[in-house]
Amino acid sequence: MASCTIILLAGPSGSGKSRLARLTAVPQVRLDDFYRNGDDPDLPRVHGMVDWDDVDSWDMAAAVAALSRLVASGRAVTPHYVISENRTRGSQEICTAGSPAVLAEGIFATDLLAPCRAAGLAVLPIWLDRPRDLNFARRLGRDLRQHRKQPSILLRRGLALRQDERELRGRAVARGFQPMRMALARREIAALAPDTQIWAAPSLSNTRI
């Protein structure tokens, strides 16, 4: 079935997945666009609050279906999710334009590897491996700038995610993901799609990761 490879880019929140995606010219699917709306009664909750880090807050079946359509036909319509509003606002069409690879990134990418392979898709699974203190600082700064949630919620969530990173990495590796630093991941993507451009990294002061 597969006529191009899905690059599943995973890593802790704040590890630079979106930044790496911006540095590549391959077609991209933003997996965060498949979050469920905040008023969905079946959303998982912890202490009365929605647990957005639980995979059940996300529509895995819709993500796999969109990637399958993209590989099979070269195009797919995906939702556009606004995180600050906790809901979908419209949609977007993604086209491969003959690219040998499509990059899909998001915090639930590790949960997609087995379903994608079961659907007959060729997959390169990359775990973006960076120091957890750096991830914590970048994640908190990004989320505060984007006003994603209340500051107290962002800090509490950030500390919890930092604590869980070693376990997340171990789980990803056990599922088949390959740990890579940013530079190696860029080289692997360039080797898979040699006709696409890998942009030089901008300075961190101008980068929102």
Automatic annotation (TrEMBL):
Residues 6-146 form the Phosphoribulokinase/uridine kinase domain. Gene3D superfamilies: P-loop containing nucleotide triphosphate hydrolases. Keywords: Kinase, Transferase. One of its GO terms (molecular function) is kinase activity. This is Uridine kinase. It comes from Acidipropionibacterium jensenii.
